[in-house]
Amino acid sequence: MSCKIDFVNDWELRHQGAESRLYFGLHSNNRCVIKHRFSKKYRHQLLDKKLTKERTKRERKMIERIHSKSQELGPYMPKVIWSNEDTIIMTEITQCETLYDYIERESPSSTRVIDIAPLIGRCIAELHNIGIIHGDLTTANLILVPKTPKSPSTEGAAPSKRSKQDSMEESLIVIPIDFGLSTGSEHPEEKSVDLYVLERALLSTHFADSKFFNCILDAYMERLTCDQASKQKVLERFKEVRMRGRKQDYSDDMEA
């Protein structure tokens, strides 16, 4: 399938990051998103093309794996329509918001933010359950998407008491985006590093302590589908990775 893209006239630039630009527009009369990985002048030309091609290909592969293997995340992920060596066209996700924007809007200490923690843990566990290590878990790479409403309960059924947490889980889901650094792995060390990257992102950007992350971790451990011994290995590796990170921080502070 060929696709001629006119970024200037046909597409609206919505976001530019360090690695790519996001454009919104119409493709075959459908609302879509283009993710274009632009050339990096500071990199050698051959290396730049190689990395761009690998990351674009990897992103498409991971999105398609989620669609095929995750019944929870798959229905809410964008679908890849077309891709080449530096560009992916995907279906647009409407009414979504990055976790970063959500936390900043609500404030880190609000109940509505705290209630999101289990959804984040479940999202990461779903990735790890199907052998995907994200590689760059930040609050900018996790987005909140409204869930498709379920059909009404059977008439005459006894009413049940629902907590705010139950209501949140029924109305929202957290999904990952940006898989350029992702890998396929079942190894506990890789999973633990994924978790540690997220903890560091939360502490450096939004939170003063790890209480919020610990809620994420509890939900993550509960959602993992491996046996108890494997879960324990992930937790032990995470504690080791966290300790190594703290030692490195201390060493950096001493040298500063």
UniProtKB/TrEMBL annotation:
Keyword tRNA processing: yes
Region listing for Disordered, in residue ranges: 148-168
EC top class, as a word: transferase
Highest rank taxon of the organism: Eukaryota
Disulfide bond keyword on record: no
Family recorded in the similarity comment: Belongs to the protein kinase superfamily. BUD32 family.
Identification of the protein by name: non-specific serine/threonine protein kinase
